[in-house]
Each structure stands twice: as C-alpha cells, then as structure tokens.
Amino acid sequence: MKKISVACLMVALTCLLARSAFAASCESLAKLALKDTAVTKVEVVAAGAFTPPDAGTARGPNPYKTLGAFCRVAATLTPTSDSDIKIEVWLPMRAEGAPGTAAGWNGKYQAVGNGGWAGVISYSALAEALRDGYATASTDTGHEGGRGIFALGHPEKLVDFAWRSEHEMTAKAKKLIEAFYGSGPKLSYWNGCSTGGRQGLKAAQMFPEDYDGIVAGAPANRTAISLWIADAVLRDPARYIPPAKYPVIHKGALDACDAGDGLKDGLIDDPRQCKFDPAMLQCKAGDEPSCLTAPQVAAAKQIYSNAINPRTKKEMFASLVPGSELGWGAQAAGPEPSPMIYDQYRYVVFKDPKWDWKTFDFDKDVVRGDLPENLIMNATNPNMDAFFKRGGKLIMYHGWSDQLVPPVNTIEYYDRVVAHMGGAAKATEHVRLFMAPGMGHCAGGEGPNTFDEVKALEQWVEHGTAPARIEASHSANGRVDRTRPLCPYPQVARYTGSGSTDDAASFACKAP
After folding, report:
1. 474: phi then psi, degrees, rounded to nearest 5
2. What's the alpha-carbon Rg for the chain, to the nearest Å?
3. Which is more confident, 97 or 402?
C-alpha cells in the first residue's frame, strides 16, 4: 500500500511540474496558435497604469488606478469571411500574494457582457472582474459603434452579435488562460446586464458547457416597446409629455401606490398592484404646469399599458410600470424612438435605412418582426436543461423602475422557465430571479441598486448555498443611506416591525 501511495504522489508531482512547465510568459502569448485568431496586442500592464483607448479627456478619479498588474491580450477573431470580432483577455500577473488579491489569479474565469448594440470592449466591467482576481474577457461582438447599421447586408455579423462572438471569445480566452497559467480555469462565470443579460441567457440555452454560473440582469430581449412609447407620445405633438412633467407623474404614482405594501418609503414594492390613474393629474383651470393635458393623460396611460394588437385586441408585450417615470426620457423625449428598437426594425427587419417609424403597424409589422430570421439575437427559449443538468446556476435580476427593458417581460420569461422545469420547487434549485424596487436599468434609481450578484453566484456554485436574499444599498453624495434585501421572486421584502426602515436587517423575505 505504501508503494502505491508513493507512486500516486510521484504521478501527482510530475503532473504539477509538467503543468507549471507549460506556463507561458505574457509576451509569448503573441505566438500562441489559435484557430481563426490574429493576436494584435500583448503587453504587461503595470499596476494602476491602464488607460482605456477611448479615455480622451476624461476627468475625475481614475477607476483603473487600483488595478494590479496584468497581462493584456487583444485579438481579432474571424470565424467567417465577414467576421471581425475584437476581444480582450486580461490575465492577473502571477505575482506574490494570495489568490483573489490584486496580485494573484483566483483560478477562475469571468466573461463580462455588453450594453445596447455593443460595438465596444467593456473596459470598466473587465476592471471589476480583474480586481476580484479573475482572468476576464470582453468582446465588441463583431463591429464598432453603438448602432445597428452594421447588420444591414451582413447576416454573418448579425450572428456574431447574436451569440457567436461571446462563444468564440470564451473558447479563445480559456486557451489563453491555460497557456499563461499552465492550467485552465477551475470555474467559469458570465456576468452581464441588458444586452449582457441577453447574452448570458443565450449562452445557457446554446452553449451549456461554456459556464458554470451565469448572472443575467435586465435581459434585453428585443420587442417593439420603444415604438409603442413613441406611438404614445411622439406621433401626435399634442400628446408629447415634456421631461419637466416626469416628476409630476412620478409623484402621482408614489402618492397612489407607495403605501400599498404597508410601508411608505418612497418605493413601489410591486408596481403590478398599483392602480394609479394619470387622469387624476389632468389639468383644471390654472393648474399649469404641474398637471397633464387630456392628450398627455392618454399618452401616459398608453406608456403604462401593455401593447395591444389593434386588430385582434391581444396583448403583444409588456410596457413600463408605475415608478419608472423619472427615466421616461430615454424613450419618450424624442424626437425619435430609442435606437435599440428603431435600428432593429430599420436595419434588421425592414432592411431599409430610410424606413420611417411612423409607418409602423402594430398588427402586421409586429408579426413581421417576430419572424425567425429577425429573432436570432433573442434569448426567450425557456429550455436550459443541459446547462442545469451539469450543475449550472443562473441568477437573474431586474429593476422595477427600468426605463428601457420592461421588467414584466423578465418575470414572464422566468415563469416560463419555472413551468418548463416542472414547478418552483425544482426550478429554484437552479435559477432565481431578484426584483429590485426603485432600481432603474441595470443600476441607479431611488431604490437600493448596488449589490454583489457575483458573490451570491459564487456561494451558490462553489458552496451550494442558494441565495435566500441579496443585500442591496443606495447611496447619496457618496454615502450609503439605505440598505434593503432583494428577495427571490415571488418573495418580497417586508418590514419586521422594529428597527430602522433604512436597514436591511429590519426586513424579511416573505411570500406576497
């Protein structure tokens, strides 16, 4: 038995030495042969020395000053003849210091997502992952610039944006990690919001082997929401609501619904239960400007209402909810709809750069937009069985005051995932959704909106501790002024009756 033990130890030691021997210098990664890949830059970035290419004349504190030294690899991927996918992979230097510090690798990989139509490397997200000791990567998704015109006449580039760029990036990043450190990552995570949330869901649906855990915030599955809001407030000048009136409507919504959860705290716990009628703000003689005209009341009601097919009278998709008013300018300020959806219909659906949104028909054109060839980037398939069967965990989150992506759409998708998996008891072993009252799109807002979703995912994947609550904070003038738990849907945070209402410890997660 002793001889066998010694033999086993010798084999293990030999393997460790071999893996160490294959570890490469940063500079040598320039010569690493990767399929369909041209490495364009390899450099060691000294601690605190990174400056992003688009920094320009940015003022204020340098957010990269606290970064440890890292190996920066930039590459261009060409899986098709029309692909031009830029990626960056950041690898913490193997310096003294415990894994997980700024000076060492924690043994894991974290890919970070994009926003909007992407077109840029997500440098700030890379920096956050690197600070936590991760080897990390980001892609521009195969084009430059934050508009959708790249898709016109380039179906392969649309596929790159939809899913291929993230998958190819991850495959190449893992090979670079293995070459640099002598071993691949022990665990791999995805972290993204908005487009990044959609990308995370797409990965779970299409490439279950890529990640062990995924954070998908406010997933931007494209609908015609911006056109619905534009139809409400931009088509008819009489219905236009000046941004100066958004606070008036917001106050009206809070006055009507804030106390509905038993606590008047400036937040609407579940806006679906809010019965606010903008007609209560309709102008009477002498009320201007703190009121709405009759056409403006009609516009506000349409913003709150789910989109309805004018012919069949069936609901097509959800719209915004009470509490979101302060952010309406993102879609309702004009003069055109949000480019996220305008570009989708102009360059992907109609393939006409001169297409005019005012001609949009909510009967036939929504159907046209939902043809399979126009939904390639959507991530609405509830089947993530392969990802979950291999132990994958998924955390979703969404701000109730999201001004860009309707939060109810995410709830409806989550409900379909739960139904597909056979009910909440089975589903919550693998996926959990956290709704954040008062939080805007991915961040910001009047409610607690800063929280560590990656830490919650790590605890779940690495230690089997499913998140029963995630503590979130709100800050004003650089100081935390409120904390509150985010609860796994459909639970909500309820005040226990004692302690400060600005302290998360005074709340418990309970069924509504």
Report:
1. -125, 140
2. 25
3. 402
- Which residue matches tokens 């109730």? 400
| CB-based contact 271:323 (threshold 8 Å) | yes
Q: Which amino acid is at 382?
A: P
233-239: average pLDDT: 96
The pair phi, psi for residue 21, each rounded to 5°, is -65, -30
CA 62/CA 467 separation, integer angstroms:
33
Predicted TM-score (pTM) above 0.90: yes
Determine the length of the chain: 512
Task: Locate the domains of the chain by residue range.
Answer: 23-223+378-476, 225-374
The continuous run of DSSP H or E covering 170 comes out as: helix 165-181
Residue matched to tokens 């940063």: 26
* Type of residue found at 271: P
The catalytic residues are: 194, 402, 441
pLDDT in tens, 84-120: 999 999 999 975 433 333 458 999 999 999 999 999 9
Give 331-364 as a DSSP string. Answer: HHS-SS--HHHHHIIIIIIS--TT--GGG--TTH
Compute the distance between CA of residue 161 and CA of residue 151 in angstroms, rounded to an integer. Answer: 9
Q: With beta carbons less than 8 A apart as the criterion, state whether 197 and 218 touch.
A: yes
Q: For residue 489, what pLDDT is reported?
A: 98
- Average pLDDT of the residues in 431-455: 98
**Residue 229 backbone dihedrals phi, psi, to 5 degrees:** -70, -40
Cβ atoms < 10 Å from Cβ of 383: 13
| DSSP sequence for 249-311 | HHHHHHHHHGGGGS--SS--S-GGG----GGGGB--TT-TTSSB-HHHHHHHHHHHSPEE-TT
Residues paired with 76 in a beta bridge: 38, 86
The DSSP annotation for 65-128 comes to TT---EEEEEEEE-SSTT--EEEEEEEE---SS-TTSTTS--SEEEEE---TT--S--HHHHHH
Point out which residues pair with 436 in neighbouring strands.
399
Read off the tokens for 418. 């739960």
Q: Which CATH superfamily is domain 23-223+378-476 in?
A: Alpha/Beta hydrolase fold, catalytic domain (3.40.50.1820)
Q: What is the pLDDT of residue 457?
A: 98
Tokens representing residue 234 in the block: 């931009």
Judging by DSSP bridges, how do beta strands 315-317 and 393-399 pair with one another?
A: unpaired
The whole-angstrom separation of Cα 105 and Cα 92 is 5
Residue 277 half-sphere exposure, CB side, CA atoms within 13 Å? 4
* Residue 40, helix vs strand vs coil: strand
Structure tokens, 479: 């100081």
